[in-house]
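Re: weekly structure request thread

Next one in the queue (435 aa):
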Amino acid sequence: MEMVGKMKPIANSVIGSRIASVHNGSSLFTGDAGSGESNIRRHIIENDMLDAIIQLPNNLFYNTGITTYIWLVTNAKPEARRGKVQLIDANLMFRKLRKNLGDKNCEFSPEHIEQITAAYLAFQPVERELDANGDPTDIAVQIFDNTDFGYHKVTIERPDRRRAQFSAERLEPLRFDKTLREPMEHLWAEHGDQVYDPGFLKSHAKAIQAWCEGQEIALNAKQRSKLIDTSMWRRLRDLLETGHQLMQAVGTEETAGFNAFRDRVTKVMKARKIKLSATEKNAILNAVSWYAEDAEKVIDKSFTLTPSELANLAARLGCPVEALGDFGLYAQPDGSWLTYETSTDLRDSESVPLKDSIHRYFRAEVKPHVEEAWINLDSVKIGYEISFNKYFYRHKPLRSLEDVTRDILALEERADGLIADILGVKVATKLEPAE
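Done, posted below.
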């Protein structure tokens, strides 16, 4: 990317700048959509600077045997090449050296170089030839649009379904911070209510640190400070006590209707004037609930939309009103609309080619298999990757069963002869009985 930034603009040079850079395979595909590596590829391709990539043979260089690639980058593409990228697979073009030079055991002949240069200048697709055994050989060339390498990384959501039940066992983890649960559980088991006494934990700070190191628990300075913070321990104890109060009021019956369960908890809090932050309330609800396929979907929001709002929303999403469920908006019989909370454990992602429609892809490739899934458009990122294996792989038909059978029988006969020679015995054949 640094070299690209130093290219002379066409305004200062009629011929612009050209770069030929040798890379390993990671520059083609490393990094997911939105990552630094992918964004570098995106910048080069979307600005129409990638002219061609040439795949070289393995073991061509002295210090490595991996596959390498030459990237040809320019900011002054000829008219015929604009918006296009040429991929040249020269991986099978080489001649062996009589003596290895480090990892290098092959090289290009002058004829190979001439053939690659001619293929680049011709800027035409070239099908790979096959030898007498049907194995690929020689050079292969393909021409692609810039957008052929791009894709949308789309998050696919599924609704959370939860059962719920208050119990002392489920509430107990509220006593501990999730990020410090192991050392906090140890301190609670070791010292009990003393952890709530002012100054007690600070006076044992060295012993606590030594125990953590002995258990190979690495804590940063912030975590170490938090672990001996009495006020933090007390807040969590108060939250646990609030959970027990709610359990006494709500009861301990298990339910598959989390929405009604949550509403009841809210009413109890209001009636008893229990004040909790949204985070603290969710901590209690999450502690006493769990995902279950047979439970109701957990409602996130319920709202109404005017006809104009509905029409504008459908137009923005590019779908009819009846397909809004594909984007997580569900119509109800009373005219309202619902969204559901998502299950992070069931969250998935799809890579949709830039030339394809996200909604069409979802309807064809996802919806038939997961009916209740929806598209999270807020998560969409654009990525770019280039796969030579994908573009140049050619399937070689499997051998017939008859050919394989003949080879097995021939190997068996050879093996019988070897065993006889080793043991010094005569083995019976189909034509000659054993003595």
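DSSP finds 16 helices and 17 strands in the chain. The chain has a mean pLDDT of 90.
Next request, please.
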